[in-house]
Amino acid sequence: MRRSGMTNRPALLFDLDGTLADTAADLCETMNVILALHGRDRVPAERVRHLVGGGARLLMERGFAETGDAASEALIDQSFAEFLDYYSHHIADHTRLFPGVRDLLARLQAADVGLAVCTNKVEHLSHKLLETLGIAKYFTVVIGGDTLPVKKPDPEHLFEAVRRLGTLPSEAIMVGDSETDTAAAKNAAIPCICVSFGYRRVALDELGADIVIDDYQAFPKALSSLLPQHFAEWA
């Protein structure tokens, strides 16, 4: 049964880091700056992408574990606050949108598709990054890691985005790059498109996405496959 005020408008829920934008360089430089403040070595570049995903607090936990003994909760609290402060001033020194993202978002907006960001990055920094990259205008809803008492992979993170867009979970697709995204989608019974070029800690064939794409040129065909009632002509 459809709730009052809800429509059949299609909705796409995008992860941010590793899905819309390649943020690893700025995230990991920030992590290394904070690790150095606490006497730890820098994490080598070849390990960087393996650590990203799940939010800044988890990134710092992984960074400490990667460079020595695991950090105490008090140290993680402190380093998390330091991370947010430094990152807010260096949020897009090296971050760039993935190829095809801007044109895709413009096309989706023109087609009146509901667009939301569902990320475990804290909300105010998510807004700042979207503004800095020039794509904030496309997203009427942003659910960050601290917007709700829960975050991905809890399905409520996705359900809240769908509610704010005024549509239904049956009309939504999650778009991500990691096992956190696919788990959130599975928990919400929402199909998931994953990009192969993002950040994950499992093998690509273990992600469990409904469709994996190698670039955004393949995105329209994936949409037509998962929501043919809205995107059949996009194939």
Radius of gyration: 18 Å
How large a portion of the residues is in β-strands, by DSSP E? 5-15%
* Architecture per CATH nomenclature, i.e. the level-2 architecture of the largest domain: 3-Layer(aba) Sandwich
Q: N- to C-terminal separation?
A: 30 Å
Count of separate structural domains: 2
**Unreliable runs:** none
Q: Can you identify the CATH superfamily of the largest domain?
A: HAD superfamily/HAD-like
Provide the CATH top-level class of the largest domain. Alpha Beta
- Mean pLDDT across all residues, rounded? 93
Count all strands and give the number.
8
Largest sheet, in brief, is:
6 strands, parallel
Q: If strands are numbered along the chain, what order do they take across the biggest sheet?
A: 5-4-1-6-7-8
CA-based shape: elongated
- Name the assembly state: single chain
In the CATH hierarchy, the third-tier topology of the largest domain is known as Rossmann fold
Structural class: alpha/beta
SSE string, helices as H and strands as E: EEHHHHEHEHEHEHEEHH
Please tell me about this protein's structure:
By secondary structure, this protein is α/β, with parallel strands linked by helices. The chain has 2 domains: 11-22 and 95-234, 3-Layer(aba) Sandwich (Rossmann fold), CATH 3.40.50; 24-89, DNA polymerase, domain 1 (Orthogonal Bundle). 42% of the residues lie in helices and 12% in strands. It is built from 10 helices and 8 strands. Strand 6, helix 8 (179-188) and strand 7 (192-195) form a beta-alpha-beta unit. The longest helix is centred in the middle third of the chain and has 17 residues, at 73-89. The chain is elongated, with a radius of gyration of 18 Å.
